[in-house]
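just leaving the lab so this will be short. what follows is a protein written twice so to speak, once as letters and once as structure tokens for the fold. can you read through it and tell me how you think this chain folds. thanks a lot i owe you, the record is right below.

___
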Amino acid sequence: MKNMVIFDTNVILRYILQDNQEMVERVEEQLSSDVCFIPVEVIAEIVYVLSKVYSVQRKVIVKVVMDITDTENITVAQTDVVRHALSVYASTVLDFVDCLLIGYAKEKQYTVFTFDKKLQKYLKE
């Protein structure tokens, strides 16, 4: 049985950005030998860093993160919520965390208590 290893944001960013070949190779080795887990918090930070630090367009971020959710040997926490959040993120100007809240509301039927009128509008849709 393979070991479960949690990947942090930096590991995933190095793999996505391919900006350090040695680190990319280490990630690939890890992927081939273990089952890797990515928490929702790490997904949120990946989206934030790609958007704010690297100025990556939303549609590119959505594709890259969707690809991560489909990668063999990677388990993403709350995949259904993350995928729903990504679809909302792709078509709105909402922050990704707000999109995650919408994902929880739609996929898990959670009630989101918020004073944010913009978020309330999307929760009613």
Q: What stands out?
A: The chain has two domains: 1-77, 79-125. The mean pLDDT is 95. Residues 15 and 28 are 8 Å apart (CA to CA). The two ends are 43 Å apart (CA to CA).
